[in-house]
Design a protein that fits this description.
four-stranded antiparallel sheet, mainly beta, 2 helices, 155 residues, globular
Length: 155
Amino acid sequence: MIRAATAVLATALALAAPAGAEEIGCVDTVFKLVGPNHKICVDALADPKVDGVVCHLSRPVTGGLTGAVGLAEAPSNSAIACRQVGPITIKEGLEDGEVVFAERRSVLFKRLRVRRFHDTENNVLIYLVVSDKLIEGSPKHSLSTVPIMPWRSDG
């Protein structure tokens, strides 16, 4: 019994944050008598192909019993804010619409993805977070832009 509970907890924790994300913090939004509360979590995401850019992604996390065992379908609402935090270096070629981060939002059918675009004419990186479903998509999305600027170091 303890092994099964430990396995369920480990699975829930593994699904909690996107790969490559560092959890900054969470706030409870709905109290649940059984299982964890519903919450909104904020993660810091570094772009693997672009040094000097960090995105902060907020997303709802479904609690309760189904959330605890990883069977809940999380809402599509998410927000993203990306900023230059150092000299921007593009490490390799960028593809427009490339998935930078991905996370399952339900067991089978729903994913949250952060996609990157490079507006070369205006020298801007664009990050779009959108939730998609196997059967039907979701128009809920959020967008953040990062102008590629010289980085001034006062050191």
